[in-house]
Amino acid sequence: MTEAMHEHKGFTVYLEGDEGHQGNVLAHTFVGRINKLILVFNKLERLHQEASAKKTDFEIVAADKRNPTTLTLKPVPRVKNYSPTPAMHWCIAQLERIDRGEDPETISNLAGNLSDEDIKAITSVNRTGKPLEDADRKVR
């Protein structure tokens, strides 16, 4: 079976808590960063698919409040007969490139579609400098 036929297992977002709040992540910070990350994934997916509308939603498949707070999201199709797996692998590969300080694959396409705020959202979520794991994509 090809990679496109396999279901994407999802990715985990890690957010470090604040010492001033007993190591807890503030709700507005968590929701804001997750929202920005999903918006960036939606923009990247539309670029990958050359589509005008998003084709993927995200299910919450796991969450943990202990520091670091984690949220595992699984991409699921919004439309019939669509697999988000190829687009999600491509999106994560682009985020990894940005996190390493490299240009994304299609910088000419991305330049006009991702704002400086989008790039800041990507890099503020993953500050480890480590590549994302393939089996369980982890965004820090």
Structure description:
The protein starts with 10 loop residues before the first strand and ends with a strand. It has four helices and four strands; from the N terminus they run βαββαααβ. Helix 1 crosses helix 2 and helix 1 packs across helix 4. It is globular, with a radius of gyration of 15 Å. A four-stranded mixed beta sheet has the order 2-3-1-4. A hairpin with a 4-residue loop joins strand 2 and strand 3. By secondary structure, it is an alpha+beta fold.
User: C-alpha Rg, in Å?
Assistant: 15 Å
- Contiguous runs where pLDDT drops below 50 for at least 5 residues: 1-5, 125-140
Strand order of the largest sheet: 2-3-1-4
> How would you spell out the order of helices and strands?
EHEEHHHE
Alpha-carbon distance between the two ends:
31 Å
List strands and helices in order, with pairings:
Layout lengths: L10 E5 L11 H23 L6 E9 L4 E9 L7 H15 L7 H5 L4 H10 L11 E3 L1
Parallel strand pairs: 1-4
Antiparallel strand pairs: 1-3, 2-3
Defining key terms:
140 residues; alpha+beta; 4-stranded mixed sheet; 4 strands; 19% strand
TL;DR?
Helix content is 38%, strand content 19%. By secondary structure, it is α+β, with helices and mostly antiparallel strands.
